[in-house]
Structures are given as structure tokens and as C-alpha cells.
Amino acid sequence: MFKNILIIGCGMIGSSILRGVISQKLCKSIYVFEKNSKYKKQIKKINKKIILIKKLDKEISKMDLIIISTPMSEYEKIILSLNKNLSHKTLITDVGSTRTNVAKLIMEKLSKKLNWIMSHPISGSEASGPKYGSKNLFKKKWCILIKNKKNKLLEKKLSRFWKKLGSKILFMNEEEHDKIFAITSHLPHLIAYNLIKTSQDFQKTNKKNIIKYSAGGLRDFSRIAASNEIMWRDVFFNNSKNMSKIIDLFIKNLKNFKIDINKKRNSLLLDKLKKSKKVRKQILSLKQDISKPNFGREN
Amino acid sequence: MFKNILIIGCGMIGSSILRGVISQKLCKSIYVFEKNSKYKKQIKKINKKIILIKKLDKEISKMDLIIISTPMSEYEKIILSLNKNLSHKTLITDVGSTRTNVAKLIMEKLSKKLNWIMSHPISGSEASGPKYGSKNLFKKKWCILIKNKKNKLLEKKLSRFWKKLGSKILFMNEEEHDKIFAITSHLPHLIAYNLIKTSQDFQKTNKKNIIKYSAGGLRDFSRIAASNEIMWRDVFFNNSKNMSKIIDLFIKNLKNFKIDINKKRNSLLLDKLKKSKKVRKQILSLKQDISKPNFGREN
What we know:
The structure is a homodimer.
Chain A lengths: L1 E7 L3 H12 L3 E7 L3 H10 L4 E2 L12 E4 L6 H11 L5 E4 L5 H10 L5 E2 L2 E3 L20 E5 L5 H13 L3 E5 L1 H33 L11 H7 L4 H10 L1 H23 L3 H20 L14
Parallel strand pairs in A: 1-2, 1-4, 2-3, 4-5, 5-6, 8-9
Antiparallel strand pairs in A: 7-8
Helix pairs in contact in A: 3-4, 6-7, 6-9
């Protein structure tokens, strides 16, 4: 399908793409650019075919597809190397979790002759690093592609690439994407971080070790709040406008719950608690989760 | 160990006790009082030995141990039957998630001659009903017993009972219990409900079906928010003072996160996000969860 593919930044997501590309034989030669020396050792163990390159210099001009899977705060520096060394023949994509900021960066900084179509595979976990990657990470998961008016042919090519890794494709524009993922992904992560922060504050004030009793709910949030901090700082900063609005709505609703509880508004509270089940049912019917009850993951 | 055991209210938790009691042979005869006819059918299928009783009348005087596992809002009615029919010989316990309210109820409504020691097994799931019960539900999980000055012998007896079901025992007083579980269990559940409510509001305003994209975080919260609404209404109402305080702290912290994001306070935000990992590490080292990363439960 491609002759040469380069993956820039090879952590959990990058190495999952790497593993998928090798397993599906999507190119003749596979190249990786990774700065972290611990990660490099882990990458070498994945497959002997992998070629680790040391610099983003003129060698990269031969790449047919470049996938950037570094934290988004690295993009600006990378773009300088792309501008210098690439031609229109290379298809560039990335896997960042916010899209408006990258659309802006592409418009302002990327050479007009180059082709970058943004991807966002909706898959991940709290684990960081190439040893946690899996060739199956994208299987049956959505991959959002940001609509590109400039080059429909490359759009199709990229779409086919993700399909080969097992993804289901959806097209969106960048504003729509950032609005939707503010509520389905970015807010849940911030809330998890905030709950852990609140429990740490509680622990300090009350001098009680509460972690022992975390099985009743807290531990599930602690998993999400153990996600990569660089990645999530980038997401929060880059989607701050949508985040602000949705945080305000969240706080408004939480204050209402507090009033319901304090005023013992029985039927109103019961009604709200019941309605959540509808969302759960929709999620299950759309196969975004399995219905098997969770009794704690050790069971 | 006991001659006759009665379980009042036999949903997911009650039926797990039931299964454990039968499997561990903890009594000669096992009785169940359950009003829901669908549940009754499911209970009959568990084991032929189970005796379903229709009323809480004088027949219950022969019980050595009674375990109440109904929603807490049922307790007052049940206490009337206990007062009428029991003597000091019966050990009474329950499995409610808040304890100060039940301590008060016992003091005000229960006949002084009767013995009720409160339990709170820290285990559960989003599933309701006896068919989801498991004899292993309590294995290696904490069971909190509320200190009882009146009768240390019965306290030991109850402690042995839970240990036979696999629990590890911890003693607390009711105020301490309610303060700790407000943060480790009650707030996480309310937050999950509130996140789902917020996503429903978002969906209405924006006329977008966002459920499709829930794999990035929202779906984990939707599971918790699918828990039994009667049980959680009772918990929220009965622990409203502790909940109020902890909701206020949560909102204060969330507002600070919002400022961090909007003002792009880089090192402050990174520091906070990093610190969450410490809690995760503690939870794993205390074996309250497993370290295997979660890529979505279908994998």
C-alpha cells in the first residue's frame, strides 16, 4: 500500500500503529523517530524490521506516509523539519485529541505545498509507553478524520489506512470534533483528575488514609487520572473554550444535585438518577462497552 | 455456626450473602424474605434448600441471625416487625452504605432488648437483582463493622460470619465511616450521575448524538451511573451533611482547574496532573485494583 511509513513519537498509540502496520504489512519499510532512549529499547524488541532514525532530516523526503503521535506541544518543532524536507508527495497525519488548534497550526506554520490530514483514533488507556501498545488497539473503534477539501484522494488513502488497522471511519470538521470530545472525553478526564485532587485534599485535612477504602468507586476514577499528564495538559489547554463552557454546565448541575440532596427532593432526584440508565443502555446498544457487570477487575 | 439465618431483601448483595452462606454451610436452615416476585423466582433457582417466607411474623423469632439487605428506606417498617417478634437471642445486622442515620434509627426505634450490629461490605457493582449475586463477592474485600459497646460477644460472632464469606474486617464508628465513604464512594457516584446528566443536557442543546463517541472516557462513568437509583437516593439523602462539604471542595477544585486551563498555568497544572498518579500507585499497592491497563472492556 505504501512504500515507506514513518512514525514520529512512538509511545502507546504510536507503537500500536507500528504493530498494526507490521502485522497488516501496510508498507515495505517502516521507520520510527523517537527521542526517549528507554522507549527506543522497547521499540527495537517489537520487530527486527523497524528502522529507528536519529534525525528528521532530508532522509524523511522518501516517506509516503508520516504519522505524528507525539504530544501536541511537540508539533511546532516537527513542522519546521517537515517544511524543510518534504514534498507534496508525502501524506502527513497525526493522532492528537484536539483538532482546532492543530488546524490553526497547519494553516499558519505548515508549508502550503504539504498535505496533512488530521486523524483522531478513539482508543487509548491510562498506560504510557511502547510496551503497552497493541496491534488490536484500533479494532472496531472509531477513527475521526477531519474533512479536507484540498485533497480527496489523500483523504481516501488515509481512510483506507485506518480501516486496515481495524478502525471504523467518521468524518467531522475540527470545531464539531472539539465540541463533542470536550464532553465525551476531555471533561471525564478532568473530572477524574479533580476527584483525585479532592480526595488528596480530604486526606490532608482529615489525616485519614482513605485509599484503603477506594473499592467503592474512587479506584475507577484513579485509573483514568493516571493517564499521561503531558498529553492531557495539551488537550486541556487546546480545548479551553469548550472545556470552560462544559465545566460551567457541570458545576451548575452539581449545585442542583446538592440542593436536591439537602432539600430531600425525592421524586426529582429519583427521576434524574433513573434517566442515567438510558445513556448506559444507548452506550451498550451502540457497542461502546460490554454489559457484563463490573465487580472490580480482580474478579 | 448458626441454626437459622434469615435474609431480608435479596437483591444483588442479599443473594451474594445467600450464596456464600449455602456454599460455606454457615447454617442449618436458610430463610429469605423478598417482596419482588421476579426476584423470588430467581432466588428459588439458586438452591432448593432456600425457604422463602411470606411475612415477617412470629416465625422469625427462631432466627439466630437476620441480615437486612433492602434499601435503607425500608428499615423503619422492618424494625416494627423485629420489635414485635424477636428476643435478644437474635443477632441483627444490615449492609447499608451510610451508618449515622441507621445508628439513629436503631437508637430511636429499635426495642432496647434487641441486638443490631451494623455491617458495610465494600463490594458491589452497577447490577441489581439476585441473578447477579456471587458467593465470591466478598472475597478479600473489606467489611466495615460499626463498633458496638453493648455486646462484644455478638460483635465477634458477626465478625466470624463475614470472615467465612471471605471478607477482611475493619471496625469504625458511624461518624468516621460516613465521612470516609462520602469521599471514596458517595461523591464518585454522584459525580458519575452528574457527568451523565451534563452530557444529556449537552445532547439536547447541541442536537448531537454524542453517545457514539463515549469510548474516550464517558462510558466508564455511565457504568457507575447505571447503579440502583433507590439505593443511591437513600445514600445521598442520609449522608447529606458530609456530601455537601465534599461537593463544595470538589467545586472549588474544579474552578481552580478551570482557571489553570484558561490562564495556561503550565507548571501548576502539570504538577496537579502528575500527583494523581501517586494515588493510583497507593491503590495498586494496597491491592484495591489491578495494574493491567484498561483498553476498554471488550479487549
